[in-house]
Amino acid sequence: MAIVIIDGQEIEVGDDERLNGIQAAKRAGVDIPHYCWHPGLSVVASCRMCLVESGTRDPASGKITMVPKLVPACQTPARANTVFVTNSEKVQQARAMVEEDLLIRHPVDCPICDKAGECYLQDYHFEHGQKERRADIKPFTSRRRSLGPTITLFVDRCVMCTRCVRFTREATGTNELMVIHRGAHEEIDIFPGYPLENKLSGNVADLCPVGALGDKDFLYEQRVWFMKKHAGVCSRCSTGCSIYTEENQDRIYRIKPRENPHVNKWWICDEGRYGWKHVHAAERNTEPQRLEGDDYVNADWSTTPALLDKQLRDADNLAVVLSPFLTVEEAYLLAKYARRVNKHATIALGFVPVVGEDETYPNGFTIRAEKCPNRRGVEEVASRMNGGLVAWDDFLARAEAGEFDAVWITGAYPEPWHDEATAQRLAEVPLLIVQDLLPSPLWSIATWRLPSAAYAERDGSFVNHADRLQSFQWAIRPPAGVMVEGRLYWRLLGEKGLYNARSAMLEVANEINYFAPAHHEPPPLGIDLKTSQLASTV
To answer: Which of 525, 483, 519 is nearest to 503 (CA)?
Structure first.
């Protein structure tokens, strides 16, 4: 183990670790300000905001020899006996000069800038800037231009950190962005005829430390200090990216990536970033209904569970279809209930949407063709509870042959997932319960219509393609009239109190060996079920 000294504090660095001054200081609880450095990108040391004093300590005598000039912490490796001083007067003066230089040309339009409240320039100015402005205040312009379908560039706000340029070169390999002109006239721009439209383009808005790159979808929608941030898991493909859902008064305004080195590192794709609009769709199913004669009548949640239970117990052959958009806990509870009602009930895996092929980028990020978040978790539940896996197509064939007189199909798909022909294969089932998010052909022929919750309205766990289980809590409340699946299944099972996803997971871990590592409280970065190793926290 190597010893590095940060402001007089000794920290240990592993023999196989390669840290720079910023990373070493963070481990010591010291935040070194920076604009251009990012852990997922190459080091350019251009902003000079992270300048520190550096030197070495002689291991024998303990004498410290300092380098006469300040050095960029982002470009200085933290080796054995390296000394960093981050709070000296010399360092503070350097930071103040950098801040002053940036603000001479930067438009002070914070009241109309989307980055206000989470802007590095704002924060660093108050913490490290000059006490007084020494330059004349000049009128400024706010030039803007579109870089592509998702991003607008506010030219005069840019501090030329070049994070966005490096991202398109190193992370996506698409190279749409470049630096034009020289010196004080430098600007970010696209190559002519090549707009910024790769499938990870939204990440440049997150990377931008100031308000230069604006997300068109979020532009002028909400002030960041009004929103609440909730840790969650993306449901748009089987990568299962760690995300933050940002909302105000139960309305989602923005999805941002949450760092997870085991899954998505620092990024998310645009499909996950912008694929939440169905949560607030006007056509969402929001009322439980039952078929009486030829018409549907609204049902009451106070009596619906009891009526469902009676009808299901009267059925001879029951089948339950578990959607890959259910959480592990919800899938288990519904399967457990089906087995309690009918010990010979068929437990099937629902339709697994697959679109195209996996797309892998130079940085290792992959957009999966499998467009659901929990196929692995639900598959394990269905296989264990059924004594073998019954796939969607197998279930349809058996249902069309008249094998079942009661079928419960769960959905929660964000997009259309079946057609009229599929629905007609189930048209003769006497008791058809459909639980879904949006109207569909199956919804139109169901005996019972039960509205489903969206991914951001659930508690529970998803298992991604690589067998990593990630747990999360709900971010927003569902619309009035919607009962979250877990809560309904909890009531059908006669469990006491409110639905508790953690209690359900402990039961799953006891009953199904695959989930045994989930006996431990899942850390923020999840559990690798394949190796039974808990992920370390950041």
So the answer is: 519
